[in-house]
Design a protein that fits this description.
The protein has about 280 residues and is α/β, with parallel strands linked by helices. It has three domains: about 5-120, Rossmann fold, CATH 3.40.50.20; about 145-210, 2-Layer Sandwich (Dna Ligase, domain 1), CATH 3.30.1490; about 215-280, no CATH class. About 35% of the residues lie in helices and about 20% in strands. The protein has eleven helices and eleven strands. β9 (about 220-225) and β10 (about 230-240) form a beta hairpin. α4 runs antiparallel to α5 and α5 (about 120-125) packs across α6. The model is unreliable at about 1-10 (pLDDT under 50). This is ATP-grasp domain-containing protein. It comes from Elstera litoralis.
Length: about 280
């Protein structure tokens, strides 16, 4: 472990940046972003990606930890050790890129009084129903959607199937309310397939979102926040789709030509989303 300034030394305490992810290190390379001022960099991985951290990256980081299993208990232990070293949770910056770990990191912030959004603040980014409702309140078009909880007939699979079909139409998309990356996402094209899905998932129906399938091109708009203000990066266009990718097909994204019609349309839509209360109040 590299040298760490102690409170009684008279040297200003340093900030500790803790990076939580189960992604390939080389997709992020955050050790290159080290603050020129004194700082401590800590990275936490699960076993798979811990084994793939390059030696040179581990040498630049102050601590590389393997959390096995990667859960609340193991992460809490690491955070407790780092808070003790830092002398105060105010000197901890907990950074998470992985969507699946956002709520876990939010909970950790709340429990250790670390500055930043809690799991309550972040729920709108993980719960797709809350997310759509917030966007609808801001006047932003979202796919028609429904959940079993929103309907009154969850004890009758056939009646539930009929209600979903009448409200959403076919084809429709079924995915977990807190899903990511098109995992466990299905395209259902008729009543027979919908009824089969409902019967197969009878014990967990409240966990699923049924929504309108929208045909068309898929875009993404990259933005980050600096000192509370959004900074636009660029617009990308998918070749293939996330759903096709999880079903074994090729997918990639290409950069949309700046100042083109598509570029302006997606950028304007992105700005409208960022101005909505769901984002601007975070």
């Amino acid at each position: 472990m590299k040298a760490f300034y102690l409170a009684e030394s008279g040297v200003e305490m340093i900030s500790t940046y803790i990076f939580i992810n189960r992604l390939r290190y080389d997709r992020l390379r955050y050790d290159y972003a080290r603050d020129k001022t004194a700082s401590r960099l800590v990275a936490a991985f699960d076993q798979e990606f811990f084994d793939r951290v390059p030696v040179e990256a581990a040498a630049r980081l102050d601590r590389v930890s393997c959390l096995e299993p990667f859960n609340h208990q193991t992460l809490s232990q690491l955070i407790a050790e780092e808070v003790a070293l830092a002398g105060s949770p105010d000197r901890i910056k907990l950074i998470c890129w992985e969507e699946d770990a956002l709520l876990l990191c939010g909970r950790i912030r709340r429990e250790f009084n670390i500055p930043g959004p809690t799991e309550i603040d972040l729920s709108v980014y993980r719960n797709k129903i809350d997310m759509k409702k917030k966007l609808m309140e801001a006047g932003i078009r979202v796919p028609r959607f429904v959940t079993a909880e929103m309907l009154a007939s969850t004890n009758s699979p056939k009646k539930l199937m009929s209600q979903i079909a009448a409200y959403v139409g076919f084809p429709l998309i079924v995915k977990p309310i807190d899903g990511m990356g098109a995992l466990e996402t299905y395209k259902i094209c008729d009543q027979t397939a919908l009824l089969a899905f409902i019967e197969d998932h009878r014990d967990e129906l409240l966990s699923w979102n049924f929504e309108e399938f929208i045909q068309g091109n898929i875009f993404h708009c990259d933005t980050f926040f600096h000192e509370g203000e959004p900074v636009f990066v660029g617009v990308g266009k998918h070749v293939g789709s996330p759903l096709a990718y999880v079903n074994g097909q090729t997918r990639c994204t290409i950069v949309v030509e700046p100042e083109s019609d598509e570029w302006h349309q997606i950028k304007a839509f992105n700005e409208k989303v960022l101005e909505s209360p769901a984002v601007s109040q975070l």
